[in-house]
Every structure is written in structure tokens, then in C-alpha cells.
Design goal:
The protein is α+β, with helices and mostly antiparallel strands and 441 residues long. The protein contains 14 helices and 11 strands. A hairpin with a 2-residue loop joins strand 1 and strand 2. The longest helix is centred in the C-terminal third of the chain and has 32 residues.
């Protein structure tokens, strides 16, 4: 079961898996985040979960006060995203939540009842885990609406990348890690100089044989710092822009010099790399769809009702193309009656791709949800085609899109944090925690 949660949930959301501190007498506020708060009990449990994860990975957690500050910052960012989702009217239905939990249970060869029983056996609160999964799904949907839906890859970007990649093997993938020393926008020259000195000091520690993961855990400002800075596998097109010209020249296990970007100062390490074959023969699908997106005046439930109404009209004999022209929120296909053209595998986001793969030619799907909103798909035709160059182009486009989403998401999170009201609070005096004493509120 421990493996299950590392694969599916951020560790800082797994506080339910660990008991609260027995010595805690009274709770208190450690941060005010706009109109919400973070309690010491939340921070203690999340810190314990992160510490356990770091130790399980073979690394040593940083000092408790340093780790608590890092985890508190993560919880702040999580609160801000949850608040933003509430403002946008984003909500995860019980049906969607159960489907997500059933998927997790299936990965562990269980049904949902067995999964709940296994959680209780390990001392976890199933209802609390449900709430945490719902929160993660909510944040993922928010990211889809606020970030992913605004990211596009132009033909010029794709052509430039393919031209640059033609001198190497585009199918090579890289597993990378980074250490980031953040330099906030508008920082003074003194702050920027101090950050540069910090980055160079970390670089020197690495040159002297320091452990990259350990230094990332204790000193990086990146979102993946507490995972040792590991950013996972990326194709050449999916590498962060700042790393693109550096990673391919590194040997496995080597780290870069200090690199500078708008986010701050980076050091990247190449953990591993692997090659892959570009398949020439693919099954292409031509489909059309209707998209209904939540917006400022129509929340997710109203959007679901709208798509259900359109589905009933289709069942009554109306044409999907006509309904798409009139109702679809997809600007790229609505004027073409929802026609998406011929597409190779990997052209769509996972939820859409999965549904498309389950359908037969001529079939119309029931309404389903992706991060962009509610869809109905009709499969028009399929064909086998030898299009190795187009597959390579489609894979590159998707990798570039994912990279741009990651960069845009980091920027969006920084802006969200900078614009928020956050009041960090120290622990009250020990005497204030004694029963009968006044506590900070």
C-alpha cells in the first residue's frame, strides 16, 4: 500500500497516513492564507509524511525547522489553488471521485471496498483520504482551465525545434533533476547578488562531491525540491527551455554550471537517458466533438447539465455537426462542425485519448470530462498510415506543449503566491499551550 500512495498522491497530502503528535495539547495557526488558515497540526502531519518519504528514498531530511518552512510553503500554495478553484466554481462530483479511487484500487488489484479496508488496516481514515484525492483532482482541473487551455504550440516553434533536433536523436529521453535558487521578479541587486553567491556555493559543493538529491532537498526552491529535485523523464522537446542546450551535452551523473532564467538560478543534473524508436505505422482517427466549458456564469454542474441536454438531442436524431457549430466552446473546431481532422495517437489529452480509443467507427460517446471541460465525441473514420515523419512531429508538438505547460504553471503559481495575502505566524509561548491558557487564534 505504501507504493500506491507514492504513485498517486503528493506526499504532503498524505497527512492522514500518519498520527498527529501525541504531545500536542492545543492547536494553533501557523499561517493565514487569504481567508483560510493552516494549523500546526496540518503542518506537523504533512512534515512527518514528507520526512518519511525522504528517508524512504535513502536521503536524510533537512533540519526540522528548515523542512517545516518548506512544507508550510507547499501547503500555502496548495491552499491558494484550492481557493482559486472554489472561486471558479470547480467541483469534483462523487461519481468522478469514486472513479479515480477505483482506478487507484485497480492498480493494486483491489476493488473499492478492499481498498477502503486496506486503508483502515494501516490506520488511515478513508474519508480523509477521499477528501485529499478530491482536492488533488480539483487542483488538476484548475490547472487545466487556467494554464493548459491557454498553451498552444505554433508551427514555427515546432519547425524550429525539429530543425535543431535534426542533428541529433529526437527520440532520446532524459531523466533530469534540478536545484533552483529563486530570484523573485523585481528583486533588488543585493538580493540577486546573494542568490548568485548561494547558487555558486551549491555548485562548488557538488563539484566537491556533494550529493545532488540531498542538496536539492535542503537548499532548492523548486517545486520538486523535497523529491531530490527529480523532474522525471523528458523528451528533447519536453526539456525546460533553460536546459535544452545543456542536457544533451552532459554525461549521465554529471551536473551543469549555474544557468540563469526568469525564475532564478538553476543547476541541472542528468540522472539517466534512454533511446526510443519512432513508429511509422499508426492508426489515425478522424473524429468530431462538442466541448462545453465551465466559465464565470456557468459552473461545472451547469456545464454537465448542458452537455447532457445536447446528448439527449443527439439521441433524438439531431446532427452533432449542427450542435457543435451552435454550442461548442472549442474555437478551433466549432466552425467546422466539431471536426478535429485526422489525428495520430498522442494528439489529445489523456482523458480524451482514452475515450477515443474505446470507441468504434460511427459511435457517439456519452458525455465525459477532461481538464478542458465536458465532451461528446463521434468517431467518423479510422485508417492505417505510414507517417513516421508526422508521428515524430506530433510527438514533438505534445512534448513542447507539456514543457510550455510546466513553465507556465510555475509562473502562474509564483504570481498566485505574490498576489495573495499570507501572514506567517510563529508558535505561541509554551505557557500558552497549557490547558486553560489563552491561545493564538
Amino acid at each position: 500500500m505504501a507504493r500506491l500512495f507514492r504513485l498517486t498522491l503528493p506526499a504532503f497530502l498524505l497527512a492522514a497516513a500518519l498520527p498527529a503528535h501525541a504531545a500536542q495539547v492545543l492547536d494553533y495557526i501557523v499561517a493565514v492564507v487569504d481567508e483560510d488558515v493552516i494549523l500546526a497540526s496540518e503542518l506537523d502531519q504533512a512534515t512527518d509524511a514528507i520526512s518519511a518519504q525522504i528517508q524512504a528514498s535513502g536521503n536524510t531530511p533537512p533540519p526540522t525547522d528548515v523542512l517545516r518552512d518548506q512544507v508550510r510553503e507547499r501547503l500555502i500554495v496548495q491552499k491558494l489553488q484550492t481557493q482559486r478553484a472554489q472561486q471558479r466554481g470547480i467541483a469534483i462530483s462523487d461519481e468522478e471521485l469514486n472513479a479515480a479511487l477505483q482506478n487507484v484500487a485497480a492498480q493494486n488489484n483491489m476493488d473499492l471496498r478492499e481498498f477502503a479496508r486496506a486503508l483502515r488496516t494501516q490506520g488511515m481514515d478513508y474519508l480523509q483520504v477521499r477528501d485529499q484525492v478530491r482536492e488533488e483532482l480539483t487542483v488538476n482541473r484548475l490547472r487545466g482551465i487556467e494554464v493548459e487551455s491557454r498553451v498552444n504550440v505554433s508551427d514555427r516553434e515546432l519547425d524550429d525545434f525539429l530543425a535543431m533536433a535534426s542533428r541529433g536523436d529526437q527520440s532520446t529521453e532524459y531523466r533530469i533533476a534540478q536545484i533552483l535558487v529563486a530570484v523573485p521578479e523585481g528583486s533588488t541587486e543585493q538580493t540577486a547578488t546573494a542568490a548568485r553567491a548561494e547558487a555558486e556555493q551549491i555548485k562548488q559543493a557538488l563539484d566537491d562531491g556533494g550529493d545532488f538529491a540531498q542538496l536539492a532537498i535542503s537548499r532548492s526552491d523548486g517545486q520538486k525540491a523535497l523529491e531530490g529535485g527529480d523532474l522525471g523523464w523528458r523528451s528533447a522537446a519536453g526539456l525546460p527551455t533553460i536546459f535544452a542546450g545543456t542536457v544533451s551535452d552532459l554525461d549521465i551523473g554529471a551536473h551543469s554550471d549555474v544557468l540563469e532564467s526568469g525564475s532564478g538560478l538553476h543547476i541541472v543534473k542528468l540522472l539517466d537517458k534512454r533511446g526510443g524508436e519512432v513508429t511509422a505505422m499508426v492508426t489515425e482517427t478522424r473524429a468530431r466533438h462538442i466541448l462545453i466549458q465551465p466559465n464565470a456564469i456557468r459552473d461545472d454542474e451547469a456545464s454537465r447539465e448542458e452537455i447532457q441536454n445536447l446528448y439527449q438531442r443527439l439521441q433524438s436524431g439531431e446532427d452533432l455537426a449542427d450542435l457543435a457549430k451552435e454550442h461548442s466552446d472549442d474555437p478551433g473546431s466549432a466552425n467546422q462542425g466539431g471536426d478535429l481532422g485526422w489525428r495520430a495517437p498522442g494528439s489529445f489529452v489523456p482523458a480524451f485519448e482514452t475515450k477515443l480509443g474505446e470507441m468504434e467507427v460511427g459511435q457517439v460517446s456519452q458525455p465525459f470530462r477532461s481538464q478542458f471541460g465536458w465532451h461528446i465525441i463521434e468517431v467518423l473514420d479510422r485508417r492505417e498510415r505510414d507517417n513516421g515523419a508526422e508521428v515524430q512531429r506530433a510527438q514533438a508538438r505534445e512534448a513542447i506543449r507539456r514543457r510550455k505547460v510546466a513553465e507556465e504553471y510555475e509562473s502562474w503559481l509564483r504570481q498566485l503566491r505574490e498576489e495573495a495575502y499570507v501572514d506567517l505566524r510563529a508558535a505561541p509561548d509554551a505557557a500558552a499551550l497549557e490547558p486553560g491558557s489563552a491561545t493564538e487564534s
